[in-house]
Amino acid sequence: xxxxxxxxxxxxxxxxxxxxxxxxxxxxxxxxxxxxxxxxxxxxxxxxxxxxxxxxxxxxxxxxxxxxxxxxxxxxxxxxxxxxxxxxxxxxxxxxxxxxxxxxxxxxxxxxxxxxxxxxxxxxxxxxxxxxxxxxxxxxxxxxxxxxxxxxxxxxxxxxxxxxxxxxxxxxxxxxxxxxxxxxxxxxxxxxxxxxxxxxxxxxxxxxxxxxxxxxxxxxxxxxxxxxxxxxxxxxxxxxxxxxxxxxxxxxxxxxxxxxxxxxxxxxxxxxxxxxxxxxxxxxxxxxxxxxxxxxxxxxxxxxxxxxxxxxxxxxxxxxxxxxxx
Length: 326
Known about the structure:
Layout: H1 3-22, H2 38-48, H3 52-66, H4 70-85, H5 89-106, H6 117-135, H7 139-153, H8 158-170, E1 199-204, H9 210-226, E2 231-234, H10 251-265, H11 278-283, E3 291-295, E4 301-306, H12 311-323
Parallel strand pairs: 1-2
Antiparallel strand pairs: 1-3, 3-4
Helix pairs in contact: 2-3, 2-4, 3-4, 4-5, 4-6, 5-6, 6-7, 6-8, 7-8
């Protein structure tokens, strides 16, 4: 088992993992994502309890004792989110600006993706700054901030996240971005021309994503119920460079693993294609999985939703599009 997985699982979860292996469940529902540092966990617990002051104090004390480490800045990012949620917009902007400044200092001596926590902190800072500007009615300024950041960080792990935030402000009401199908799982997808006049549901998933696996039965039910009415369902995915038992899996190993995950969790969805392309994730800004995108019969994006979506809400949105009333 790779070090990232054992760190993320912990001792008791690791024991459960071994039991799952012995029971034949050889693909855990989630793996490979970095665990929250203790300071981040403590800040999140304070915020969950509605105690912003304690969250701020915890982050401040940690920074005072340890300096502006990546973990400290990630905790500070959650504080900025809490401040924004509490409508303390000026304070949230100041906190986000501090994260950006501290990150820039750190990046003078390292690359962004050396470890996972500084990219998470910096991405949060950009999001908070943009959301604060948007809340103040400064949409153009928010977009400009995100576009400038994307131009700067387009070759890093931040790119998809920045594009997501741009898409949240701009994508609905516009033509669907290019969806490439040069590689796929299972049957070769039909060409895009076959989608004309159909309603599309794009379900972006990742092989490590537990929320994707939980959402799969919802997508399957809706696809089964609505296929005859003109619904086309596509499930784009991508490689990430690892599997549950290899932190550095080459494509020759990860691709069959992707297929195995698909067959275990997603095969019962009546799909029209499973494209495999990281570029699709970049254009659609898929840093959150699942991401759900609905496209009307004219090829216009009508819903862009990073994250899980309740069945009743997704069904209502699809029924409206299939009736042609949106």
